[in-house]
UniProtKB/TrEMBL annotation:
PANTHER family: RESPONSE REGULATORY DOMAIN-CONTAINING PROTEIN, STRESS RESPONSE REGULATOR PROTEIN 1. Residues 12-129 form the Response regulatory domain. It comes from the Bacteria. It comes from Candidatus Competibacter denitrificans Run_A_D11. Keywords: Phosphoprotein. The modification 4-aspartylphosphate is found at D61. Pfam families: Response_reg. InterPro entries: Bact_response_regulator, CheY-like_superfamily, Sig_transdc_resp-reg_receiver. This is Response regulatory domain-containing protein.
Length: 129
């Protein structure tokens, strides 16, 4: 069991992507920008990490087995998540656009979509904003 953290970083990123190499790429970039980062590869691990970490930013893949991005957006709204959301997809950009519209409709103000392969400069720009 992990010890409870006394102080949490002001910049906490939770990543969910079923492709571990994408999660690792995002982790490396975000860590370099001062984020505390946790990477998950499935919905259940994401949900558990969410409650433990209380992220200030979430980066999520749209197309995953078991639980897709739209399901996670709805779950986040049930949790009253109101911080930054980065939606990533390597599929049709309209799929990410639909998730962004859903998140915005549900009340999230800061929703950004990134198309894979994600460019390093674009990821840095989004995480620095």
């Amino acid at each position: 069991m992990k010890p409870k953290r006394e102080l949490m970083s002001e910049k906490r990123l939770l990543v969910i992507d079923d492709e571990p190499e994408i999660g690792e790429f995002v982790r490396k970039v975000a860590t370099g920008l001062g984020y505390e980062v946790q990477v998950t590869t499935d919905g259940r691990a994401f949900q558990a990490a969410y409650h433990e970490m209380r992220p200030t930013t979430i980066a999520m893949d749209m197309v995953m087995p078991e639980m897709d991005g739209n399901e996670l957006v709805l779950w986040l709204m049930e949790q009253q998540y109101d911080a930054n959301l980065i939606i990533m997809t390597g599929y049709n950009p309209d799929y990410a656009k639909d998730a962004r519209l859903l998140a915005e409709f549900k009340g999230l103000r800061s929703v950004i979509t990134l198309i894979k392969p994600i460019r390093l400069d674009k990821l840095r720009e989004v995480l620095s904003a």
